[in-house]
């Protein structure tokens, strides 16, 4: 989200810059055209009244064209100069940042993920506070709660996408002591609206693991119910999906994103409603196969389908800015003001 916001800001300034250049170019061309038209008009009048010689008229036209050409080049040089100044300022902004201590790029996850008195705010609005969780390696954990309770924000803390209060530890080591790269190598994150590249189905699936053999990719594709849809496409796995996967259905896009996350073979899976576009029966089957395949992996998933909860070892419910562990799915219906399903 922060990347998209920054990109929008860059796009906005770039559009303003090039709009100014195009306006300048238009103004130059109008001025030159009026100048040429004036010379032709007065030159014709001078020739007709025998007040100007033909060679003088031709000289004026030639000088005007040379002047217009050089001024046009001057406008182009100004645009290049403005772009260079902008790039130089951006480079200076990056290089002038204080040196940040190099953090380790590898995590050997062996024990647990722990949240101690963790809180998160956006501006003056408190999202949640005093969250205390301990998730052991290999556990399958469901997170439930109504929209806006902070479920997705909690997952993104583990990726260092959100600033927070309190302490988060992996194997008794503070999260802040790990580099973002080490965390993103450790974690496979699949969101509800995972982006696809304007490339082939095969490339989008294998993006997280380009060395993965096709037979393994196809085997997993069959297990999550994707293969039968892909072989019906015009070029099968070589079909170009279009920008953000516009030539595929919502369910197909989510299955590709989920399969890409599986092929990464990370130790921790963070799943933010990655099966929201599936029907309930397909959703249960896909996740059952995923859990069987990743039975030794740690899975933390945001869930809105009550029937899926029996697949998980533990259930945590977000409500009123705090979290509570639920030991039986039926207890969710006793939570006051909880709207989950």
From TrEMBL:
Any one GO MF annotation of this record: ATP hydrolysis activity
InterPro entries: AAA+_ATPase, ABC1_TM_dom, ABC1_TM_sf, ABC_transporter-like_ATP-bd, ABC_transporter-like_CS, P-loop_NTPase, Type_1_exporter
Swiss-Prot/TrEMBL keywords: ATP-binding, Membrane, Nucleotide-binding, Transmembrane, Transmembrane helix
Entry membrane topology: Multi-pass membrane protein
Membership in a protein family: Belongs to the ABC transporter superfamily. ABCB family. Heavy Metal importer (TC 3.A.1.210) subfamily.
PANTHER family attached to this UniProt entry: ATP-BINDING CASSETTE SUB-FAMILY B, ATP-BINDING CASSETTE SUB-FAMILY B MEMBER 6
Name of protein: ABC transporter domain-containing protein
Organism: Anncaliia algerae PRA339
Taxonomic lineage from the root: Eukaryota, Fungi, Fungi incertae sedis, Microsporidia, Tubulinosematoidea
């Amino acid at each position: 989200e922060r990347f998209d916001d920054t990109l929008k800001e860059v796009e906005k300034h770039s559009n303003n810059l090039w709009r100014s250049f195009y306006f300048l170019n238009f103004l130059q061309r109008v001025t030159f055209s009026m100048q040429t038209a004036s010379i032709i008009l007065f030159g014709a009048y001078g020739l007709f009244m025998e007040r100007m010689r033909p060679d003088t008229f031709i000289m004026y036209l030639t000088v005007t064209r040379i002047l217009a050409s050089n001024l046009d080049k001057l406008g182009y040089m100004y645009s290049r100069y403005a772009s260079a100044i902008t790039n130089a300022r951006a480079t200076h902004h990056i290089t002038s940042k204080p040196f940040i201590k190099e953090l380790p790029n590898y995590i050997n996850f062996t024990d647990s993920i722990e949240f101690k008195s963790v809180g998160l705010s956006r501006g003056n609005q408190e999202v949640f506070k005093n969250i205390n969780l301990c998730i052991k390696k290999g556990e399958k954990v469901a997170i439930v709660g109504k929209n806006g309770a902070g479920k997705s924000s909690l997952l993104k803390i583990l990726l260092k996408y959100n600033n927070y209060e309190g302490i988060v530890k992996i194997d008794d080591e503070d999260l802040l002591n790990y580099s973002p790269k080490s965390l993103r190598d450790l974690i496979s994150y699949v969101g509800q609206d995972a982006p696809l590249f304007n490339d082939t189905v095969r490339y989008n699936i294998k993006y997280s693991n380009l060395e993965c053999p096709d037979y393994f990719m196809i085997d997993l594709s069959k297990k999550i119910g994707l293969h039968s849809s892909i072989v019906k496409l015009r070029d099968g796995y070589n079909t170009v999906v279009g920008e953000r996967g516009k030539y595929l259905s919502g369910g197909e896009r989510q299955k590709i994103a989920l399969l890409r996350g599986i092929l990464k073979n990370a130790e921790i899976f963070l799943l933010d409603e990655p099966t929201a576009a599936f029907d309930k029966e397909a959703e249960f089957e896909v996740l059952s196969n995923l859990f069987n395949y990743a039975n030794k992996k740690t899975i933390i998933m945001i869930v809105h389908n009550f029937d899926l909860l029996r697949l998980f070892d533990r259930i945590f419910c977000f409500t009123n800015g705090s979290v509570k562990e639920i030991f039986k799915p039926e207890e969710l219906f006793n939570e006051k003001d909880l709207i989950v399903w």
